[in-house]
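During the reporting period the student researcher (J.K.) took over the structure-prediction task from the postdoctoral fellow and processed the backlog of single-chain submissions. One of the processed entries is reproduced below for the supervisory committee.
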Amino acid sequence: MTDGFEYFVGQLSTIDDAGLSKPSALPGWTRRHVVSHVGFNARAAGRLVRWVRTGEVTPMYPDTSARAREIEEGAHWSGQRLRELVQREQAALASALRDLDDSDWSFEVVTAQGRTVQAGEIPWLRTRELWIHAVDLDAGGDFHDLPPDMIDRLVAEAVQKRRAGDSPGLDVRLTDRNPGGTPVGSGDGPTPVVEGAAADIARWLTRREPRGVRTSDGTPLPELGPWL
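J.K. obtained the following structure tokens:
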């Protein structure tokens, strides 16, 4: 099965350097911004791994604006330099993760969003970035390409996050998983339930794109704020 990094690189390989300057699927970002973010995100995740190994507090970013500065800087690099950034930082992160001992995976770190998580969550955080941003390159990739277990975990996480934030009554039903069954969520939210194939629900929850998604009674979809 193709993993997230292989999928991202595969999508990136279809874009020539001139094409990197075209808009991505993310408002205000070119494809260069997406590639820059993916490269620097690996470096940031590596800082969390260093925190685990040394016990010295090493946040993903030194301050609240550092992430945006890195992305914008990289967005002005050459295509070759951006591609090398992605390869180099992914290899460094993968090596650092392989070096963790069994006892390290329960060590707690803090993400850029301020969540306290165990080190065992770091591979998921990176995998999520790779798959979603591969689609954001807008080079033909789609959420339907993501592995089913990846989609299911992403939907569960996104529903939980939305219910804790901008959509406390949100329930979704995955029509290709459990048609007519219990919605994902608490099950006690108000009607209507948002319905659609799992991949379409995941796309809507994370990217607010309503393609393939509807409410059970035909009313407008709930308004969602930005994802992460």
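The committee noted the following: The chain has a mean pLDDT of 93.
J.K. will present the remaining backlog at the next meeting.
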